[in-house]
Amino acid sequence: MDVAQAFIEKSRHYLAREYPSKIQRCLDVLPEEMLWRRDDASENSIGNLLLHLSGNVRQWIVSGVGGAPDARQRRAEFDAREGGRASELMSGLLATLHDADTVLASLDERSLGEARRIQGRDVNVLDALYHVVEHFSMHTGQIILLTKRFAPGRVQFYEDAGGLAIPRF
């Protein structure tokens, strides 16, 4: 497998499997009343982060790379103080990730160098994909941290096996 194809496949793995599995594990143990909790106005709730991840992936990959219309309302992702239940938000995120995976499955080495304009930025497809994976990782980490705070001891991703971290997701 060439480097370009390996990059695309690993990106698909993170976005379609690993990160959503970790988020789902968090939502499975998160007390319902904590989904939209903010300790102050400058924080984002887990609900906001789920909306934001869906908006970002749809704008950058489905629209920006794949060419679908871009109807994102980014500010609304952060302004929401309440909204759907965890299962509804996760379903929306999974639908977006499915659409993004379809776009990513169509990419090849040549397409990674193609120019795009996304959020007013001139990028190539590789830049867009790298941005989305990095961005998704960061916010997945925030969801994990908040879940560990709101549901102490209830979420774990790895089992220690003699110094080896065995994934449990």
What does this structure look like?
There is one protein chain. The chain is mainly α. The protein has helices at 3-29, 46-65, 74-79, 86-105, 109-112, 125-150, and strands spanning 115-118, 121-124, 158-161, 164-167. It has a single domain (3-167), classed as Up-down Bundle (Four Helix Bundle (Hemerythrin (Met), subunit A)), CATH 1.20.120. A two-stranded antiparallel ribbon has the order 1-2. A two-stranded antiparallel ribbon has the order 3-4. It starts with a helix and ends with a strand.
CATH superfamily: dinb family like domain
Oligomeric state, counting identical vs distinct chains: single chain
Structural class: mainly alpha
Q: Give the tally of structural domains.
A: 1
Biggest sheet features: 2 strands, antiparallel
Task: State the helix count.
Answer: 6
Instruction: Give, in order, the helices and strands.
Output: HHHHHEEHEE
Please name the CATH topology.
Answer: Four Helix Bundle (Hemerythrin (Met), subunit A)
Rg from Cα = 17 Å
Distance between the termini: 26 Å
CATH class: Mainly Alpha
Summarize the structure.
With 169 residues, the chain is mainly α.
Task: Give me the secondary-structure topology.
Elements: H1 3-29, H2 46-65, H3 74-79, H4 86-105, H5 109-112, E1 115-118, E2 121-124, H6 125-150, E3 158-161, E4 164-167
Antiparallel strand pairs: 1-2, 3-4
Helix pairs in contact: 1-4, 1-6, 2-4, 2-6
Q: Features of this protein?
A:
single chain; 169 residues; mainly alpha; Four Helix Bundle (Hemerythrin (Met), subunit A); two-stranded antiparallel sheet; 6 helices
